[in-house]
Amino acid sequence: MAKWIRNQYDKLLTYENLMKAHKKSQKGKKLRKEVIMFSLKEEEYIRYLYQKLKTGTYVHSKYTSFKVYEPKERTIEKAPYIDRIVHRWIVNNFLEPYYVPSFIKTTYACIKDRGMHKATLDLQAGMRKMKKSYREYYILKMDVKKFFNNIDKNILYKILQKRIKDKKLLWLIKQILTVQKKKKGLEIGNYTSQTFANIYLNELDQYIVKKLKIKQVYRYMDDIIILVKTKSEAKKALNDIEKFLKEKLELELNDKTSIFKSKQGVNFCGYKINEYRIKVRDKGKRRFKKKVKKLLNQIEENNISSKEARKYLTGHIGYFSIANTYELKKRNILLQEDLISKKII
Questions:
Q1: pTM above threshold 0.70
Q2: What pLDDT, on the 0 to 100 scale, is given for residue 313?
């Protein structure tokens, strides 16, 4: 894949690619009213969208907002469905193919084949490697303060400009970034936001690996783990990273940031991890139990399709599968048997 994105907008702006983006966008959402209404006249709407993007007359619509309270209170800003197709088209045709290959191998979240399981197992493998080399080592655990809300859009746009030399694509990206008229914060809920966020913190990843020469770094979105030999190395890394975040990305770490001995293990991706064991944290168990109960009620009330329920539940059952806990695995088997009896999975 070429380093620069040049003259690709017109080549990749096709009816077929927009239709693919629509088909991917509607997965798991086919029963929603706006998706049903769009799908009834999908060919007509896709042709309309194609013309708008082709002639440079596309204008991103306004967002609607609502709050969610699990796992914590957040404001979700939702774009109309037709705009979400544009988001998908940009990510699938430009951002993923050109940016993801340049990410470090140990950055995760919203990257194909790099989910929570991969992140957890890779970290444990890194911990085993450190244990083999050193009897004891140190862990630096960092969490970016209000990450999505504090991403500076001007800085993000400048980062994107370093690789994107296609003026039409930059115009479209600017539409997405400026529709809200706010300097900071990506819209939680946009398909583009997760990839933009990874591109933003890729600047930090590259700094840690290339400038600080730290080999053992693992990042799942804004949750960052570094493994080093000594406490002094961890302190120096922390100081350098804090300075870089402040000066280059206008971000800061939150109060959860800490340095501790490896024998304590580390919390990452909802698990408690050491060199030999992976345990699901109590908070994760409670959340899963609550979600399953809610989902089963939705199924009984016909508020969710069995296909959507199957996808959701099998994903969450898989989340527990790598934990080295007999009791949890036993519960998983019983839960799966119960769901199979209800013809959900």
A1: yes
A2: 67
